Amino acid sequence: MKVVYASTPTQADKINELIQTFYSTIFPYYFSDDEIQHFKSLNVLNPTSEQMDSMGTLKTSYQVIASLQTIISILEEPQNKNRYKQIFEKNVRILEEFELFFPFNLENFNEEEDFNGTSLSIFSGSANTFLI
After folding, report:
1. DSSP state of 8
2. What is the pTM of this model?
3. In angstroms, rounded to a whole number, what is the distance separating the alpha carbons of residues 91 and 115?
4. Which residues of the chain have a pLDDT value below 70?
5. Nearest of 110, 65, 104, 112 to residue 88 by alpha carbon
6. H or E element: which one contains 18?
7. For 85-120, how does the pLDDT look when each residue is reduced to its tens digit (9 = 90+)?
8. Count of CB atoms within 10 A of residue 22's CB?
9. In the chain, how many H helices and how many E strands?
């Protein structure tokens, strides 16, 4: 008999929060709104309920959380990201093992693109919380 520990709702919330970070912070820096909208239509990092069920153990949910956090950390440091190419690829493979669609390689996040986070995005979070 094998004992498996179930993940908590907090871990599922954390996974969803990290996925939102990609759409609100990471993707707007590297891609246009049209491209991000296309990612949404392709279900990039959009787990189905079956996939969320497969991440229902502590081990798998922590692997997904750690992979998402690692990729975010690498992409938030554009100057040093090429140093971590192997780590990036390893974490993308982990996401693929759990069938989370992330069709990017590190070269897709090239800061030398024409669109490098200099304009506003509908996906970016607000700069403040004041209601006008």
Report:
1. P
2. 0.79
3. 25
4. 1-7, 54-55, 111-132
5. 104
6. helix 9-21
7. 999 999 999 999 988 999 999 999 886 444 444 455
8. 21
9. 6, 0
